[in-house]
Amino acid sequence: MLAVMLAGCAGTPQQVPGKSHAGASAAAEAFESPEQEATYHVFMGELALQRGAVEEAAHQYAEAAETSTDPSLLQRAVAIAYQAGDNELARQLDQRWLSLAPNDRDALRFAAVLDARLGHFADAARHFEQLFQGEHADSYHAVAALLGQETDAAHGLPVMQQLVADAPQSADAHYASAELALHYDRATLAEQEARQALAIKPRLEGPQLLLARALADQGKYDDALAIIRPRLKPGLEGIPLRLAYAALLAQADRDAEASQQFNAVLKLQPANAQALYSLGLLELSAQRYQAAHDYFRRLYDSGQEGDTAAYFLGNTAELQGHYPDALNWYRQVTEGARWFPAQVAIVRVLLAGKLPDAALKYMDEIVKRDPADAARLRAAEAQLFADSGDTQTARTLLDNALVALPGNDDLLYERALIEESTGDVTASERDLKQIIRQSPDNAEALNALGYTLTIHTTRYSEALGYIQKALELTPEDPAILDSMGWVQFRMGRNDAALTYLHDAYQRDHDPQIAAHLIQVLLAAGRHEEARALWTAALKANPDSADLKALTSKVTP
Predict the structure, then answer these.
(1) Are 505 and 514 in contact (CB under 8 A)?
(2) What's the pTM value of the predicted model, to 2 decimals?
(3) How far apart are alpha carbons 332 and 312 in whole angstroms?
(4) 2 pLDDT exceeds 80?
(5) How far apart are CA 77 and CA 403, in angstroms?
Protein backbone atom coordinates (compact mmCIF):
# COMPACT_ATOMS: atom_id res chain seq x y z
CA MET A 1 0.00 0.00 0.00
CA LEU A 2 2.82 2.38 0.94
CA ALA A 3 4.65 1.75 -2.36
CA VAL A 4 1.53 2.49 -4.40
CA MET A 5 0.82 5.63 -2.40
CA LEU A 6 4.37 6.97 -2.77
CA ALA A 7 4.47 6.21 -6.51
CA GLY A 8 1.18 8.01 -7.09
CA CYS A 9 2.09 11.02 -4.98
CA ALA A 10 5.65 11.63 -6.20
CA GLY A 11 4.71 15.07 -7.45
CA THR A 12 2.28 15.92 -4.66
CA PRO A 13 2.84 19.28 -2.91
CA GLN A 14 3.86 19.36 0.76
CA GLN A 15 0.34 20.35 1.83
CA VAL A 16 -1.87 17.39 0.99
CA PRO A 17 -5.09 18.46 -0.74
CA GLY A 18 -8.22 17.75 1.28
CA LYS A 19 -11.91 18.08 0.59
CA SER A 20 -12.29 21.76 1.31
CA HIS A 21 -14.45 23.73 -1.10
CA ALA A 22 -11.46 25.74 -2.29
CA GLY A 23 -9.19 22.77 -2.87
CA ALA A 24 -11.56 20.14 -4.24
CA SER A 25 -10.31 20.32 -7.84
CA ALA A 26 -6.67 20.34 -6.73
CA ALA A 27 -7.33 17.23 -4.66
CA ALA A 28 -8.71 15.40 -7.68
CA GLU A 29 -5.59 16.26 -9.72
CA ALA A 30 -3.16 15.11 -7.00
CA PHE A 31 -4.08 11.42 -7.30
CA GLU A 32 -4.33 9.14 -10.32
CA SER A 33 -7.49 7.39 -9.11
CA PRO A 34 -10.06 7.47 -6.26
CA GLU A 35 -8.56 4.20 -4.98
CA GLN A 36 -5.14 5.83 -4.71
CA GLU A 37 -6.60 8.82 -2.87
CA ALA A 38 -8.42 6.52 -0.43
CA THR A 39 -5.21 4.56 0.14
CA TYR A 40 -3.33 7.75 0.92
CA HIS A 41 -5.89 8.88 3.52
CA VAL A 42 -5.97 5.42 5.10
CA PHE A 43 -2.19 5.52 5.43
CA MET A 44 -2.28 8.98 6.97
CA GLY A 45 -5.06 7.86 9.30
CA GLU A 46 -3.00 4.92 10.53
CA LEU A 47 -0.02 7.21 11.13
CA ALA A 48 -2.27 9.50 13.15
CA LEU A 49 -3.45 6.54 15.24
CA GLN A 50 0.14 5.58 15.98
CA ARG A 51 0.67 9.10 17.35
CA GLY A 52 -2.52 8.85 19.41
CA ALA A 53 -4.22 11.54 17.31
CA VAL A 54 -7.58 9.78 17.10
CA GLU A 55 -9.56 12.81 15.91
CA GLU A 56 -7.14 13.41 13.02
CA ALA A 57 -7.33 9.70 12.16
CA ALA A 58 -11.11 9.88 12.09
CA HIS A 59 -11.08 12.73 9.59
CA GLN A 60 -8.47 11.03 7.42
CA TYR A 61 -10.61 7.92 7.28
CA ALA A 62 -13.66 10.06 6.53
CA GLU A 63 -11.79 11.43 3.49
CA ALA A 64 -10.94 7.88 2.42
CA ALA A 65 -14.53 6.72 2.88
CA GLU A 66 -15.93 9.52 0.73
CA THR A 67 -14.79 7.89 -2.51
CA SER A 68 -14.62 4.26 -1.38
CA THR A 69 -17.16 1.51 -1.99
CA ASP A 70 -15.39 -0.95 0.32
CA PRO A 71 -17.64 -1.80 3.31
CA SER A 72 -14.65 -2.90 5.39
CA LEU A 73 -13.04 0.53 5.00
CA LEU A 74 -16.32 2.17 6.04
CA GLN A 75 -16.47 -0.13 9.05
CA ARG A 76 -13.03 0.97 10.22
CA ALA A 77 -13.85 4.61 9.55
CA VAL A 78 -16.98 4.36 11.71
CA ALA A 79 -15.09 2.62 14.51
CA ILE A 80 -12.36 5.29 14.57
CA ALA A 81 -14.84 8.18 14.52
CA TYR A 82 -16.71 6.46 17.36
CA GLN A 83 -13.47 6.05 19.29
CA ALA A 84 -12.74 9.74 18.77
CA GLY A 85 -16.12 10.62 20.28
CA ASP A 86 -17.34 12.27 17.07
CA ASN A 87 -20.79 10.70 17.06
CA GLU A 88 -22.13 12.87 14.26
CA LEU A 89 -19.28 11.96 11.89
CA ALA A 90 -19.57 8.31 12.89
CA ARG A 91 -23.30 8.39 12.11
CA GLN A 92 -22.71 9.94 8.68
CA LEU A 93 -20.11 7.31 7.87
CA ASP A 94 -22.34 4.54 9.19
CA GLN A 95 -25.20 5.67 6.94
CA ARG A 96 -22.87 5.29 3.95
CA TRP A 97 -21.78 1.88 5.24
CA LEU A 98 -25.43 0.82 5.49
CA SER A 99 -26.06 2.02 1.93
CA LEU A 100 -23.34 -0.41 0.80
CA ALA A 101 -24.30 -3.25 3.17
CA PRO A 102 -27.93 -2.72 4.30
CA ASN A 103 -28.12 -5.89 6.39
CA ASP A 104 -24.68 -5.81 7.97
CA ARG A 105 -25.24 -6.49 11.67
CA ASP A 106 -22.27 -4.42 12.84
CA ALA A 107 -23.47 -1.46 10.78
CA LEU A 108 -26.97 -1.77 12.23
CA ARG A 109 -25.58 -2.04 15.75
CA PHE A 110 -23.50 1.11 15.28
CA ALA A 111 -26.50 2.88 13.75
CA ALA A 112 -28.72 2.05 16.71
CA VAL A 113 -26.19 3.16 19.32
CA LEU A 114 -25.24 6.34 17.47
CA ASP A 115 -28.89 7.30 16.97
CA ALA A 116 -29.45 6.79 20.69
CA ARG A 117 -26.41 8.90 21.61
CA LEU A 118 -27.54 11.71 19.32
CA GLY A 119 -31.14 11.69 20.57
CA HIS A 120 -32.73 10.07 17.49
CA PHE A 121 -34.65 7.65 19.69
CA ALA A 122 -37.25 6.42 17.17
CA ASP A 123 -34.51 5.75 14.60
CA ALA A 124 -32.46 3.89 17.21
CA ALA A 125 -35.44 1.70 18.10
CA ARG A 126 -36.08 1.01 14.40
CA HIS A 127 -32.48 -0.07 13.86
CA PHE A 128 -32.59 -2.34 16.90
CA GLU A 129 -35.80 -3.91 15.63
CA GLN A 130 -34.20 -4.46 12.23
CA LEU A 131 -31.10 -5.91 13.88
CA PHE A 132 -33.03 -8.48 15.90
CA GLN A 133 -35.91 -9.08 13.50
CA GLY A 134 -37.22 -12.64 13.77
CA GLU A 135 -34.95 -13.53 16.66
CA HIS A 136 -35.87 -14.85 20.10
CA ALA A 137 -37.32 -12.50 22.71
CA ASP A 138 -33.92 -12.51 24.46
CA SER A 139 -33.00 -9.87 21.90
CA TYR A 140 -34.65 -7.27 24.15
CA HIS A 141 -32.14 -8.14 26.85
CA ALA A 142 -29.32 -7.84 24.33
CA VAL A 143 -30.57 -4.34 23.49
CA ALA A 144 -30.72 -3.42 27.18
CA ALA A 145 -27.17 -4.69 27.71
CA LEU A 146 -25.84 -2.73 24.72
CA LEU A 147 -27.62 0.49 25.71
CA GLY A 148 -26.41 0.14 29.28
CA GLN A 149 -22.84 -0.24 28.09
CA GLU A 150 -22.81 2.48 25.43
CA THR A 151 -25.23 5.20 26.59
CA ASP A 152 -26.33 7.06 29.69
CA ALA A 153 -29.81 7.04 31.16
CA ALA A 154 -30.94 10.14 29.28
CA HIS A 155 -30.21 8.46 25.95
CA GLY A 156 -30.72 4.78 26.71
CA LEU A 157 -34.06 4.74 28.50
CA PRO A 158 -36.06 6.61 25.80
CA VAL A 159 -34.95 4.03 23.21
CA MET A 160 -35.99 1.17 25.45
CA GLN A 161 -39.30 2.85 26.17
CA GLN A 162 -39.90 3.18 22.41
CA LEU A 163 -39.26 -0.56 21.98
CA VAL A 164 -41.71 -1.29 24.80
CA ALA A 165 -44.29 0.99 23.19
CA ASP A 166 -43.87 -0.96 19.95
CA ALA A 167 -44.49 -4.26 21.78
CA PRO A 168 -46.70 -3.42 24.79
CA GLN A 169 -47.79 -7.04 25.33
CA SER A 170 -44.26 -8.44 25.40
CA ALA A 171 -43.32 -9.48 28.91
CA ASP A 172 -39.69 -9.77 27.79
CA ALA A 173 -39.68 -6.18 26.53
CA HIS A 174 -40.94 -4.90 29.90
CA TYR A 175 -38.50 -7.17 31.73
CA ALA A 176 -35.54 -5.89 29.69
CA SER A 177 -36.71 -2.32 30.26
CA ALA A 178 -36.77 -3.02 34.00
CA GLU A 179 -33.22 -4.40 33.80
CA LEU A 180 -31.99 -1.27 32.05
CA ALA A 181 -33.80 1.03 34.49
CA LEU A 182 -32.18 -0.75 37.43
CA HIS A 183 -28.79 -0.51 35.71
CA TYR A 184 -29.28 3.27 35.65
CA ASP A 185 -30.42 3.30 39.31
CA ARG A 186 -34.00 4.14 38.32
CA ALA A 187 -35.58 1.82 40.86
CA THR A 188 -39.08 3.28 40.59
CA LEU A 189 -39.17 2.76 36.83
CA ALA A 190 -37.67 -0.71 37.25
CA GLU A 191 -40.45 -1.61 39.66
CA GLN A 192 -43.12 -0.38 37.24
CA GLU A 193 -41.68 -2.31 34.31
CA ALA A 194 -41.18 -5.50 36.33
CA ARG A 195 -44.80 -5.34 37.46
CA GLN A 196 -45.89 -4.86 33.84
CA ALA A 197 -43.93 -7.97 32.84
CA LEU A 198 -45.54 -9.97 35.64
CA ALA A 199 -49.01 -8.71 34.73
CA ILE A 200 -48.50 -10.33 31.32
CA LYS A 201 -46.70 -13.49 32.54
CA PRO A 202 -47.16 -13.83 36.33
CA ARG A 203 -44.94 -16.91 36.73
CA LEU A 204 -41.74 -15.48 35.23
CA GLU A 205 -39.02 -15.81 37.88
CA GLY A 206 -36.63 -13.22 36.41
CA PRO A 207 -38.99 -10.24 36.76
CA GLN A 208 -39.95 -11.39 40.26
CA LEU A 209 -36.34 -11.28 41.42
CA LEU A 210 -35.73 -8.00 39.65
CA LEU A 211 -38.85 -6.57 41.32
CA ALA A 212 -37.40 -7.58 44.68
CA ARG A 213 -34.15 -5.77 43.87
CA ALA A 214 -36.01 -2.65 42.73
CA LEU A 215 -38.08 -2.60 45.92
CA ALA A 216 -34.96 -3.04 48.04
CA ASP A 217 -33.25 -0.16 46.26
CA GLN A 218 -36.20 2.01 47.31
CA GLY A 219 -35.86 0.90 50.91
CA LYS A 220 -38.94 -1.36 50.75
CA TYR A 221 -37.10 -4.31 52.25
CA ASP A 222 -40.05 -6.15 53.78
CA ASP A 223 -41.84 -6.19 50.43
CA ALA A 224 -38.68 -7.34 48.65
CA LEU A 225 -37.99 -10.14 51.12
CA ALA A 226 -41.61 -11.29 50.96
CA ILE A 227 -41.19 -11.94 47.23
CA ILE A 228 -38.17 -14.23 47.66
CA ARG A 229 -38.90 -15.94 50.99
CA PRO A 230 -41.63 -18.33 49.72
CA ARG A 231 -39.35 -19.46 46.87
CA LEU A 232 -36.46 -20.63 49.05
CA LYS A 233 -35.63 -24.32 48.65
CA PRO A 234 -33.37 -26.64 50.65
CA GLY A 235 -30.35 -28.34 49.14
CA LEU A 236 -27.83 -27.35 46.51
CA GLU A 237 -30.39 -26.27 43.93
CA GLY A 238 -31.68 -23.60 46.29
CA ILE A 239 -28.29 -21.93 46.82
CA PRO A 240 -28.56 -19.13 44.20
CA LEU A 241 -31.88 -17.88 45.55
CA ARG A 242 -30.74 -18.23 49.16
CA LEU A 243 -27.71 -16.09 48.37
CA ALA A 244 -29.95 -13.43 46.84
CA TYR A 245 -32.18 -13.55 49.92
CA ALA A 246 -29.19 -13.25 52.25
CA ALA A 247 -27.86 -10.29 50.27
CA LEU A 248 -31.22 -8.52 50.64
CA LEU A 249 -31.17 -9.14 54.39
CA ALA A 250 -27.70 -7.59 54.56
CA GLN A 251 -28.86 -4.61 52.50
CA ALA A 252 -31.72 -4.17 54.98
CA ASP A 253 -29.17 -4.11 57.87
CA ARG A 254 -30.55 -7.39 59.22
CA ASP A 255 -27.04 -8.71 59.61
CA ALA A 256 -27.74 -11.58 62.02
CA GLU A 257 -30.35 -13.07 59.70
CA ALA A 258 -28.09 -12.52 56.69
CA SER A 259 -25.22 -14.32 58.43
CA GLN A 260 -27.52 -17.22 59.24
CA GLN A 261 -28.46 -17.61 55.57
CA PHE A 262 -24.87 -17.31 54.32
CA ASN A 263 -23.72 -19.89 56.85
CA ALA A 264 -26.50 -22.20 55.68
CA VAL A 265 -24.96 -21.96 52.22
CA LEU A 266 -21.49 -22.76 53.58
CA LYS A 267 -22.83 -25.94 55.19
CA LEU A 268 -23.82 -27.10 51.72
CA GLN A 269 -20.83 -25.58 49.89
CA PRO A 270 -17.93 -24.82 52.29
CA ALA A 271 -15.96 -22.98 49.59
CA ASN A 272 -18.85 -20.91 48.19
CA ALA A 273 -17.11 -17.67 47.17
CA GLN A 274 -20.10 -15.35 47.53
CA ALA A 275 -20.94 -16.61 51.01
CA LEU A 276 -17.33 -16.33 52.23
CA TYR A 277 -16.98 -12.86 50.75
CA SER A 278 -20.31 -11.63 52.17
CA LEU A 279 -19.64 -13.01 55.64
CA GLY A 280 -16.22 -11.36 55.57
CA LEU A 281 -17.84 -8.01 54.78
CA LEU A 282 -20.43 -8.42 57.53
CA GLU A 283 -17.74 -9.17 60.10
CA LEU A 284 -15.61 -6.29 58.82
CA SER A 285 -18.49 -3.81 59.13
CA ALA A 286 -19.05 -5.03 62.69
CA GLN A 287 -15.32 -4.47 63.42
CA ARG A 288 -14.81 -8.14 64.22
CA TYR A 289 -11.50 -8.13 62.42
CA GLN A 290 -10.24 -11.61 63.24
CA ALA A 291 -13.45 -13.22 62.01
CA ALA A 292 -13.34 -11.06 58.87
CA HIS A 293 -9.72 -12.05 58.28
CA ASP A 294 -10.62 -15.74 58.63
CA TYR A 295 -13.40 -15.57 56.02
CA PHE A 296 -11.32 -13.59 53.54
CA ARG A 297 -8.38 -15.96 54.08
CA ARG A 298 -10.62 -18.94 53.37
CA LEU A 299 -11.72 -17.19 50.19
CA TYR A 300 -8.10 -16.52 49.22
CA ASP A 301 -7.00 -20.08 49.96
CA SER A 302 -9.89 -21.48 47.90
CA GLY A 303 -8.26 -20.09 44.75
CA GLN A 304 -11.37 -18.07 43.91
CA GLU A 305 -11.58 -14.28 43.71
CA GLY A 306 -7.91 -13.98 44.69
CA ASP A 307 -7.67 -10.25 43.99
CA THR A 308 -10.85 -9.51 45.93
CA ALA A 309 -9.73 -11.63 48.87
CA ALA A 310 -6.28 -10.01 48.91
CA TYR A 311 -7.81 -6.54 48.78
CA PHE A 312 -10.05 -7.13 51.78
CA LEU A 313 -7.30 -8.88 53.72
CA GLY A 314 -5.34 -5.68 53.16
CA ASN A 315 -8.34 -3.61 54.22
CA THR A 316 -8.78 -5.66 57.40
CA ALA A 317 -5.11 -5.21 58.28
CA GLU A 318 -5.21 -1.48 57.50
CA LEU A 319 -8.20 -0.87 59.78
CA GLN A 320 -6.24 -2.47 62.63
CA GLY A 321 -3.19 -0.30 61.91
CA HIS A 322 -1.14 -3.28 60.73
CA TYR A 323 0.35 -1.29 57.87
CA PRO A 324 3.14 -3.68 56.68
CA ASP A 325 0.60 -6.53 56.40
CA ALA A 326 -1.84 -4.23 54.64
CA LEU A 327 0.78 -3.21 52.06
CA ASN A 328 1.73 -6.83 51.43
CA TRP A 329 -1.86 -7.82 50.73
CA TYR A 330 -2.69 -4.76 48.63
CA ARG A 331 0.37 -5.40 46.45
CA GLN A 332 -0.98 -8.84 45.60
CA VAL A 333 -3.93 -7.25 43.79
CA THR A 334 -2.71 -7.29 40.20
CA GLU A 335 -5.79 -6.89 38.01
CA GLY A 336 -9.55 -6.63 37.83
CA ALA A 337 -11.97 -4.30 39.57
CA ARG A 338 -9.94 -4.27 42.80
CA TRP A 339 -6.70 -3.12 41.17
CA PHE A 340 -7.49 0.59 41.21
CA PRO A 341 -8.76 0.78 44.81
CA ALA A 342 -5.74 -1.29 45.88
CA GLN A 343 -3.34 1.28 44.39
CA VAL A 344 -5.24 4.05 46.15
CA ALA A 345 -5.14 2.07 49.38
CA ILE A 346 -1.35 1.69 49.16
CA VAL A 347 -0.98 5.48 48.95
CA ARG A 348 -3.45 5.87 51.83
CA VAL A 349 -1.48 3.44 54.01
CA LEU A 350 1.82 5.19 53.22
CA LEU A 351 0.29 8.53 54.21
CA ALA A 352 -1.14 7.01 57.39
CA GLY A 353 2.37 5.76 58.13
CA LYS A 354 3.74 9.32 57.74
CA LEU A 355 5.57 8.50 54.50
CA PRO A 356 4.31 11.16 52.05
CA ASP A 357 7.43 11.05 49.86
CA ALA A 358 7.07 7.29 49.44
CA ALA A 359 3.41 7.80 48.56
CA LEU A 360 4.27 10.35 45.87
CA LYS A 361 7.01 8.13 44.43
CA TYR A 362 4.76 5.08 44.37
CA MET A 363 1.98 6.89 42.50
CA ASP A 364 4.47 8.31 40.00
CA GLU A 365 5.60 4.77 39.22
CA ILE A 366 2.03 3.50 38.86
CA VAL A 367 1.09 6.33 36.49
CA LYS A 368 4.16 5.60 34.33
CA ARG A 369 3.18 1.94 34.11
CA ASP A 370 -0.49 2.64 33.44
CA PRO A 371 -0.87 6.06 31.77
CA ALA A 372 -4.41 5.25 30.61
CA ASP A 373 -5.54 5.52 34.25
CA ALA A 374 -3.48 8.63 34.98
CA ALA A 375 -6.44 10.97 35.51
CA ARG A 376 -8.26 8.68 37.94
CA LEU A 377 -5.07 7.86 39.81
CA ARG A 378 -4.00 11.50 40.15
CA ALA A 379 -7.48 12.57 41.27
CA ALA A 380 -7.52 9.86 43.94
CA GLU A 381 -3.99 10.74 45.03
CA ALA A 382 -4.92 14.37 45.45
CA GLN A 383 -8.01 13.48 47.45
CA LEU A 384 -5.93 11.36 49.82
CA PHE A 385 -3.45 14.18 50.42
CA ALA A 386 -6.34 16.57 51.02
CA ASP A 387 -7.93 14.11 53.47
CA SER A 388 -4.62 13.92 55.31
CA GLY A 389 -4.70 17.70 55.72
CA ASP A 390 -2.14 18.55 53.05
CA THR A 391 -4.37 20.51 50.68
CA GLN A 392 -1.41 22.43 49.26
CA THR A 393 0.22 19.27 47.90
CA ALA A 394 -3.18 18.07 46.70
CA ARG A 395 -3.73 21.27 44.75
CA THR A 396 -0.22 21.13 43.27
CA LEU A 397 -0.73 17.53 42.15
CA LEU A 398 -3.93 18.48 40.35
CA ASP A 399 -2.45 21.60 38.77
CA ASN A 400 0.42 19.53 37.37
CA ALA A 401 -1.87 16.74 36.22
CA LEU A 402 -4.05 19.24 34.36
CA VAL A 403 -0.99 20.49 32.49
CA ALA A 404 -0.46 16.94 31.22
CA LEU A 405 -4.20 16.29 30.75
CA PRO A 406 -5.79 19.69 30.09
CA GLY A 407 -9.52 19.91 30.61
CA ASN A 408 -9.88 16.45 32.13
CA ASP A 409 -13.25 16.27 33.90
CA ASP A 410 -12.08 14.02 36.76
CA LEU A 411 -9.15 16.24 37.60
CA LEU A 412 -11.17 19.44 37.36
CA TYR A 413 -13.87 17.97 39.60
CA GLU A 414 -11.42 16.90 42.27
CA ARG A 415 -9.71 20.30 42.16
CA ALA A 416 -13.09 22.00 42.50
CA LEU A 417 -13.86 19.98 45.64
CA ILE A 418 -10.52 20.90 47.21
CA GLU A 419 -10.96 24.56 46.24
CA GLU A 420 -14.40 24.60 47.86
CA SER A 421 -13.11 22.93 51.01
CA THR A 422 -10.36 25.56 51.36
CA GLY A 423 -12.73 28.46 50.81
CA ASP A 424 -11.74 29.30 47.23
CA VAL A 425 -15.34 29.24 46.01
CA THR A 426 -14.63 31.36 42.92
CA ALA A 427 -12.05 28.89 41.64
CA SER A 428 -14.30 25.94 42.48
CA GLU A 429 -17.18 27.50 40.55
CA ARG A 430 -14.88 28.17 37.59
CA ASP A 431 -13.69 24.56 37.41
CA LEU A 432 -17.19 23.11 37.76
CA LYS A 433 -18.52 25.38 35.04
CA GLN A 434 -15.71 24.26 32.73
CA ILE A 435 -16.75 20.64 33.27
CA ILE A 436 -20.37 21.51 32.50
CA ARG A 437 -19.37 23.33 29.31
CA GLN A 438 -17.44 20.26 28.21
CA SER A 439 -19.96 17.69 29.48
CA PRO A 440 -23.40 19.32 29.80
CA ASP A 441 -24.97 16.11 31.14
CA ASN A 442 -22.45 15.60 33.94
CA ALA A 443 -24.94 15.25 36.81
CA GLU A 444 -22.19 15.05 39.44
CA ALA A 445 -20.70 18.41 38.40
CA LEU A 446 -24.14 20.02 38.07
CA ASN A 447 -25.06 18.90 41.56
CA ALA A 448 -21.72 19.98 43.03
CA LEU A 449 -22.04 23.46 41.51
CA GLY A 450 -25.63 23.82 42.70
CA TYR A 451 -24.78 22.70 46.22
CA THR A 452 -21.68 24.92 46.36
CA LEU A 453 -23.74 27.97 45.39
CA THR A 454 -26.38 26.99 47.93
CA ILE A 455 -24.04 26.81 50.92
CA HIS A 456 -21.62 29.61 50.00
CA THR A 457 -23.82 32.23 48.31
CA THR A 458 -27.37 33.53 48.19
CA ARG A 459 -27.71 32.75 44.47
CA TYR A 460 -30.38 30.18 45.26
CA SER A 461 -32.34 30.43 42.02
CA GLU A 462 -29.19 29.77 39.99
CA ALA A 463 -28.26 26.89 42.30
CA LEU A 464 -31.75 25.45 41.94
CA GLY A 465 -31.36 25.40 38.15
CA TYR A 466 -28.18 23.34 38.28
CA ILE A 467 -29.58 20.91 40.85
CA GLN A 468 -32.83 20.55 38.92
CA LYS A 469 -30.96 19.56 35.77
CA ALA A 470 -28.87 17.07 37.74
CA LEU A 471 -32.05 15.58 39.21
CA GLU A 472 -33.58 15.24 35.75
CA LEU A 473 -30.55 13.22 34.69
CA THR A 474 -30.46 11.01 37.81
CA PRO A 475 -33.80 11.44 39.61
CA GLU A 476 -33.17 8.84 42.31
CA ASP A 477 -29.66 9.85 43.38
CA PRO A 478 -29.72 10.45 47.17
CA ALA A 479 -26.97 13.09 47.03
CA ILE A 480 -28.87 15.14 44.46
CA LEU A 481 -32.17 14.72 46.31
CA ASP A 482 -30.36 15.99 49.41
CA SER A 483 -29.07 19.03 47.50
CA MET A 484 -32.55 19.76 46.20
CA GLY A 485 -33.97 19.53 49.69
CA TRP A 486 -31.30 21.85 51.07
CA VAL A 487 -31.72 24.54 48.41
CA GLN A 488 -35.49 24.40 48.92
CA PHE A 489 -34.89 24.94 52.65
CA ARG A 490 -32.59 27.90 51.97
CA MET A 491 -35.35 29.36 49.80
CA GLY A 492 -37.84 29.06 52.68
CA ARG A 493 -39.81 26.14 51.22
CA ASN A 494 -39.84 23.77 54.19
CA ASP A 495 -42.56 21.42 52.92
CA ALA A 496 -40.77 20.82 49.61
CA ALA A 497 -37.46 20.46 51.45
CA LEU A 498 -38.89 17.76 53.73
CA THR A 499 -40.24 15.81 50.77
CA TYR A 500 -36.86 15.69 49.04
CA LEU A 501 -34.87 15.05 52.21
CA HIS A 502 -37.15 12.25 53.39
CA ASP A 503 -36.75 10.63 49.97
CA ALA A 504 -32.97 11.04 50.10
CA TYR A 505 -32.68 9.61 53.61
CA GLN A 506 -34.89 6.64 52.77
CA ARG A 507 -32.45 5.77 49.98
CA ASP A 508 -29.23 6.47 51.90
CA HIS A 509 -28.87 6.83 55.69
CA ASP A 510 -25.92 9.17 55.22
CA PRO A 511 -25.26 11.28 58.35
CA GLN A 512 -25.09 14.53 56.37
CA ILE A 513 -28.51 13.83 54.83
CA ALA A 514 -29.79 13.03 58.33
CA ALA A 515 -28.38 16.32 59.64
CA HIS A 516 -30.10 18.28 56.88
CA LEU A 517 -33.40 16.52 57.50
CA ILE A 518 -33.14 17.15 61.28
CA GLN A 519 -32.55 20.88 60.73
CA VAL A 520 -35.56 21.21 58.47
CA LEU A 521 -37.74 19.26 60.92
CA LEU A 522 -36.65 21.65 63.67
CA ALA A 523 -37.41 24.67 61.48
CA ALA A 524 -40.86 23.21 60.79
CA GLY A 525 -41.52 22.84 64.52
CA ARG A 526 -41.42 19.02 64.47
CA HIS A 527 -39.04 18.72 67.44
CA GLU A 528 -39.91 15.20 68.58
CA GLU A 529 -39.32 13.77 65.09
CA ALA A 530 -36.05 15.66 64.84
CA ARG A 531 -34.87 14.38 68.24
CA ALA A 532 -35.79 10.78 67.44
CA LEU A 533 -33.99 10.90 64.10
CA TRP A 534 -30.93 12.54 65.66
CA THR A 535 -30.72 9.85 68.34
CA ALA A 536 -30.96 7.01 65.84
CA ALA A 537 -28.58 8.60 63.32
CA LEU A 538 -25.96 9.44 65.97
CA LYS A 539 -26.10 5.88 67.31
CA ALA A 540 -25.36 4.58 63.80
CA ASN A 541 -22.72 7.29 63.11
CA PRO A 542 -21.16 8.25 66.46
CA ASP A 543 -18.25 10.09 64.83
CA SER A 544 -20.35 12.32 62.55
CA ALA A 545 -19.36 15.97 63.02
CA ASP A 546 -22.58 17.09 61.26
CA LEU A 547 -24.74 15.27 63.80
CA LYS A 548 -22.64 16.28 66.81
CA ALA A 549 -23.02 19.92 65.79
CA LEU A 550 -26.79 19.62 66.30
CA THR A 551 -26.58 18.38 69.91
CA SER A 552 -27.53 21.66 71.53
CA LYS A 553 -30.44 22.15 69.15
CA VAL A 554 -32.15 18.82 69.71
CA THR A 555 -31.43 18.09 73.38
CA PRO A 556 -33.54 19.74 76.09
Answers:
(1) yes
(2) 0.73
(3) 11
(4) no
(5) 31
